[in-house]
């Protein structure tokens, strides 16, 4: 399993716009082999921003890498020109390969 995360430092006055971009977009993730699950996470609020993270779970790192090279990725990440900046700097990517998983016993 592979977990891909991007952290975004969203301007405090842009949180609604940022969330609407994510909630209203066509992600195309479900079209990809190896896609397991996606979460948009809202984290702590700081003086100048609110921390958000996109959290995607894949069956393997290879499946995630195939997503980043796909037409679906390009469609999902296209933005309308002229939109105002919603976050500070570039998102920070973090990728993790699973070492251990503990699940709730049924």
TrEMBL record:
Residue ranges of domain ABM in the record: 2-96
Highest taxon of the lineage: Bacteria
UniProt xrefs under Pfam families: ABM
InterPro entries: ABM_dom (IPR007138), Dimeric_a/b-barrel (IPR011008), Heme-degrading_MO (IPR050404)
GO MF term set: monooxygenase activity
Record carries keyword Methyltransferase: no
UniProt cross-references to SUPFAM superfamilies, sorted A to Z: Dimeric alpha+beta barrel
Keyword annotations from UniProtKB, A to Z: Monooxygenase, Oxidoreductase
Coiled coil: none
Name of the protein described by the UniProt record: Heme-degrading monooxygenase
């Amino acid at each position: 399993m592979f977990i891909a995360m991007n952290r975004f430092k969203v301007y405090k006055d842009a949180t609604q716009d940022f969330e609407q971009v994510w909630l209203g977009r066509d992600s195309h993730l479900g079209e990809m082999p190896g896609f397991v699950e996606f979460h948009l996470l809202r984290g702590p609020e700081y003086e100048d921003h609110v921390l958000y993270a996109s959290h995607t779970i894949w069956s393997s790192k290879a499946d995630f890498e195939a997503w980043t090279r796909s037409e679906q990725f390009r469609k999902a990440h296209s933005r309308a020109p002229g939109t105002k900046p919603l976050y500070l700097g570039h998102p920070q990517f973090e990728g993790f390969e699973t070492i251990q998983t503990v699940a709730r016993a049924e």
